[in-house]
Amino acid sequence: MPVKKLQEGKSIVGTMVRMVKNPAVAWMAYHAGLDYIMLDLEHGPYTMETVDDIFKVGRALGLGCFVRVPELSRGYVSRIMDAGATGVMVPMLESAEEARRLVAWSKYAPLGSRGFGGVGGHTSYAVIGPEATATFMARSNSETLAIAQIETRRAIEEVDAIAATPGIDALLIGPNDLAISLGCAGDLMGDVLDKAIGKVAAAAKRHGKIFGMHAPDGLLERWIPQGCTLIMSNLDASILAAGLKAISTKHKSRRSDHGV
Length: 260
What we know:
Blueprint: H1 2-7, E1 12-17, H2 24-32, E2 36-40, H3 48-61, E3 64-68, H4 74-82, E4 87-90, H5 96-106, H6 133-143, E5 145-150, H7 153-157, H8 159-163, E6 170-173, H9 175-181, H10 191-206, E7 210-214, H11 217-223, E8 228-235, H12 236-257
Parallel strand pairs: 1-2, 1-8, 2-3, 3-4, 4-5, 5-6, 6-7, 7-8
Helix pairs in contact: 2-3, 4-5
């Protein structure tokens, strides 16, 4: 399973899905060899029902089912987990207190205080009876990820405290917003951003947390050798746009070559 691979120090590769609502996107990711998809509720239009439908397929395939929620709130975090997510990421998380709230709402006791629902996407629709509750809760805590997205100047200043928070599993860089916050918008390969990312990588290593990034290939190639194991590349809308552009460019060029 993808989460276990990360815990063993291995890398996993996935992409962000913001536009496609058909549950077949999980099948397509699986057949493409990806380890996970991350549904984007921060910038995308997904409902809880859509998340649940896509993850019915994803969980059956053993695909990592991650979500970026719009904001840090119990209503999003806990419901996303009950819809079948195996990882939840909060954007622009900036403090240890926010990290503790993420853990509280995404993890069961004793790590957190997530409410227990005995059947749903999170149980793959098996009924969890009272006799199995404690075992299920412990297993769920170990098989799901609480991911802090680090993408502001304040988060960099507080990253050591965030990483030290019990129950936080991963720190993931959002380079575009981080560069904007640091005053170097668009300069993803410059020294300012490089130094900030280095602080996150060091904090993750120091506290035994997973280090991840959603970034262009150049930035990923810079940091994968430095311990980035939660690798997220591209976006469904961009992948589709590039494919359409390739068809247009290829066949319009041929038409021109033949004088059509």
